[in-house]
């Protein structure tokens, strides 16, 4: 597009009182851009001014007013490039010079500070002018063969609920179920937990009604005794190949053995047998998946609702509980099977089990822990199954020994109701031993609420085994992705699908594939039904976004996608390996193969590329680098004691909002700092730091999301990747003869707005202690 520029400076919200607006106008005038001011740009008259200029041909606007995080809809103009200069929160509110038109005598004595704030505002306008000159108007990426069908993997209560919700919204849905019938585990239970007032009675399972509803909907196709052999492609055009469980489909593996893996430790080529072993190891788990299959079926989005399996306690040492040795010591899953078939009986002789002990934690050696994969659901199941005993036998007794009794929300009413039942005994305690006692059992426990050891005679002992997500053992989705057939194991969720991030339930690291139900976390059937609705809505959102050619999440509506200048690609594979979302495949040479609708637009690939050949239309190495270079760096030629210049590359997801809130609360930080918001710290390319320091800036800091056990980063690994890159920047600083301390990385949460100013000021003080950058003035 031929650009026609316009710079617009708002004087409202204290901007006009705190800054010399006439001097600000001199910046665009000096740069050859027309400039206008207005008391309130976001008001009716201000918008009319903007729209009139747009009608007259202005299509590249710099709007110097409030933060881009507010009024984003007000200042959005179709067909125009718009950059926002944060004069309000980022300058005058966070660097208050005066809240009144007139300066006091005391303030006049501190005009140096005033000048620095003015310089800050002028720099930000200069940076925005540079940016609009460097970026392009994004164009949407649209698929030619968009599919609006949704695939649901799993025909249990979660999968059926998701399918019903999506089909009700008008989408065609296919349910794939590996067993012979729909229903999943829900079809194997006697009763469900109560879901409405007064929360005192178990209810008939809703699974039969769900099956009938699925079968009655014409836009739902059900395929039982079917599994997913492979999913290739990207959102909007997933190519899915089905198979019968256990069937082998001889796909070619798209990722052959890299050349370096054909050699031994001494660099000698491995023989054919060794190469084959290395090949199998390298492609482990991918032997049945491959690139596009022309016979596969096309889907637009996938809902993974594959469910869970009962934990296999035979793999642990529970001999003190008699499990595996005493037939009347069973798991809660086995107990449910018995209850489904009739009255509660002992497996050993089929006689009535009127006294049942429910053990919720292993006891010996791990007395404060529940069984693996246990939680609120296993607590609720124990209560439900205790009620079975009371329903089956008037003189039945149930004993529940627990370390943690979790009954969230209104389930607490069910728990309190059972506490009033004289036939149900609940106590915290460690079960130390289960032993034979004639034809029955005796259970010994200690550290109980009674403060003493107790022994209970029982007909049956039930162990509270946990719910293991099936994805712990089987990727289920079988993705033909460069990163492997399943979801990346980031070591946090122990087999659960990685959708457990703070801000993004349902969303996995594979765009267009959404997790629901017990593969996300242990859930009751009631919770799974609700969870299915969320996943169905996410899948629909994905399809609608892909149809419009925009990003799904978290940068919802973003039209950009990464562009590669392949002529300079060295096939280093860093972009494919570091992409958190598997958006890039590669060919046998390692050349990236983009899948634009998989992309979350984080820019991690851009930050990873040593050749700097990856960018977006409105966010690239050159646009940010040019903004860095446009910052005025005062030298001794201009000042006796030139002010410092410090660059802050700030993540737009948590850190930048925290800075805005600091400004809103009038928390100040050094006016020598220049902030550039970036999509994610993972998109940070070290060349920006080199550019800043080589032009004389005195220090650079990165401010981004926390990373670690909670993975708060919106793009999963951004802060972690930046941290790794920062550790390698020492060599670059050494080549410039600069101290490592001139560059630092800090992590903040979005609610750390009161801490951010001190973090920045402490860094500025450390830079001042080091002294000016020796490159200043060159």
Automatic annotation (TrEMBL):
UniProt keyword list: FAD, Flavoprotein, Iron, Iron-sulfur, Metal-binding, Oxidoreductase
Cofactor(s) of this protein: FAD
Segments forming domain 4Fe-4S ferredoxin-type: 560-589, 590-619
Gene3D superfamilies to which the protein is assigned, alphabetical: 3.30.70.20, NAD(P)-binding Rossmann-like Domain (3.40.50.720)
An example molecular function term from Gene Ontology annotations: metal ion binding
Entries under SUPFAM superfamilies matching the protein: 4Fe-4S ferredoxins (SSF54862), Nucleotide-binding domain (SSF51971)
Family of this protein: Belongs to the HdrA family.
Protein name: Heterodisulfide reductase subunit A
Biological source species: Desulfosarcina widdelii
């Amino acid at each position: 597009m031929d650009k026609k520029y316009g710079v617009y400076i708002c004087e409202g919200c204290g901007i006009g009182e705190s800054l010399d607006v006439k001097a600000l106008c001199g910046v665009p005038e000096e740069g050859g851009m027309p400039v206008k001011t207005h008391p309130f740009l976001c008001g009716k008259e201000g918008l009319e001014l903007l729209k009139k200029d747009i009608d007259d041909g202005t299509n590249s606007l710099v709007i110097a007013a409030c933060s881009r995080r507010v009024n984003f809809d007000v200042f959005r103009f179709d067909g125009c490039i718009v950059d926002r200069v944060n004069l309000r929160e980022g300058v005058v509110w966070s660097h208050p010079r005066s809240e009144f038109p007139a300066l006091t005598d005391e303030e006049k004595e501190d005009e140096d500070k005033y000048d620095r704030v003015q310089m800050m505002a002028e720099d930000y306008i200069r940076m925005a002018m540079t940016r609009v000159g460097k970026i392009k108007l994004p164009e949407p990426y649209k698929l030619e063969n968009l599919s609006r069908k949704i695939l649901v993997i799993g025909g249990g209560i979660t999968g059926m609920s998701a399918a019903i919700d999506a089909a009700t919204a008008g989408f065609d849905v296919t349910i794939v179920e590996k067993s012979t019938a729909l229903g999943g585990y829900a079809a194997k239970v006697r009763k469900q937990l109560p879901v409405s007032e007064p929360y005192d009675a178990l209810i008939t399972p809703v699974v039969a009604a769900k099956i009938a509803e699925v079968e009655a909907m014409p836009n739902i196709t059900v395929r039982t005794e079917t599994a997913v052999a492979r999913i290739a492609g990207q959102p909007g055009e997933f190519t899915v190949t089905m198979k019968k469980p256990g069937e082998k489909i001889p796909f070619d593996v798209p990722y052959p053995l890299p050349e370096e893996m054909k050699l031994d430790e001494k660099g000698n080529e491995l023989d054919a047998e060794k190469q084959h072993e290395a090949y199998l190891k390298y492609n482990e788990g991918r032997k049945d998946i491959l690139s596009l299959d022309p016979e596969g079926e096309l889907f637009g989005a996938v809902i993974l609702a594959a469910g869970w399996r009962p934990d296999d306690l035979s793999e642990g040492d529970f001999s003190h509980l008699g499990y595996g040795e005493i037939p009347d010591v069973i798991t809660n899953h086995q107990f449910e099977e018995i209850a489904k078939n009739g009255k509660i009986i002992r497996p050993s002789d089929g006689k009535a089990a009127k006294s049942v002990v429910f053990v919720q934690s292993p006891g010996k050696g791990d007395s404060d822990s529940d069984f693996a994969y246990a939680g609120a659901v296993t607590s609720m199941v124990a209560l439900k199954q205790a009620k079975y005993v009371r329903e089956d036998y008037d003189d039945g007794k149930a004993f529940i020994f627990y370390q943690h009794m979790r009954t969230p929300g209104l389930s607490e009413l069910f728990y309190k109701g059972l506490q009033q039942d004289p036939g149900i005994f609940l106590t915290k305690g460690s079960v130390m031993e289960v032993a034979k006692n004639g034809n029955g059992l005796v259970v010994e426990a200690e550290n109980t609420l009674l403060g003493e050891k107790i022994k209970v005679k029982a007909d049956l002992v039930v162990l509270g085994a946990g719910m293991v997500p099936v994805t712990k053992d089987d990727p289920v989705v079988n993705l033909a992705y460069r990163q492997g057939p399943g979801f990346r194991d980031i070591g946090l969720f122990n087999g659960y699908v990685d959708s457990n991030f703070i801000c993004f339930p349902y969303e996995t690291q594979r765009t267009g594939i959404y997790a629901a139900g017990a593969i996300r976390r242990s859930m009751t059937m009631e919770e799974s039904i609700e969870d299915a609705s969320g996943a169905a809505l996410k899948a629909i959102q994905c399809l609608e976004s892909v149809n419009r050619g925009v990003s799904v999440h978290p940068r919802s509506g973003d039209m950009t996608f990464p562009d590669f200048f392949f002529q300079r690609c060295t096939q280093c594979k860093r972009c494919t390996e570091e992409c958190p979302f598997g958006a890039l495949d590669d060919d046998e040479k390692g050349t990236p193969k983009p899948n634009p609708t998989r992309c979350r637009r984080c820019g991690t690939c851009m930050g990873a590329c040593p050749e700097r050949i990856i960018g977006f239309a409105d966010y690239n190495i050159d646009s940010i680098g040019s903004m860095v270079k446009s910052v005025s760096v005062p030298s001794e030629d201009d000042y006796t004691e030139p002010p410092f210049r410090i660059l802050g590359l700030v993540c737009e997801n948590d850190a930048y909002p925290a800075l805005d809130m600091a400004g809103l609360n009038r928390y100040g930080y050094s006016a020598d700092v220049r902030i550039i918001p970036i999509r994610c710290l993972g998109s940070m390319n070290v060349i920006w730091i080199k550019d800043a320091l080589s032009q004389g800036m005195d220090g650079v800091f990165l401010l981004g999301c926390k990373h670690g056990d909670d993975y708060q980063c919106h793009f999963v690994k951004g802060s972690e990747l930046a941290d790794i890159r920062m550790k390698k920047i020492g060599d670059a600083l050494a080549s410039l003869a600069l101290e490592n301390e001139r560059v630092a990385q800090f992590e903040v949460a979005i609610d750390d707005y009161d801490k951010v100013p001190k973090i920045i000021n402490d860094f500025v003080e450390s830079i001042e202690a080091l002294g000016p950058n020796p490159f200043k003035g060159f």
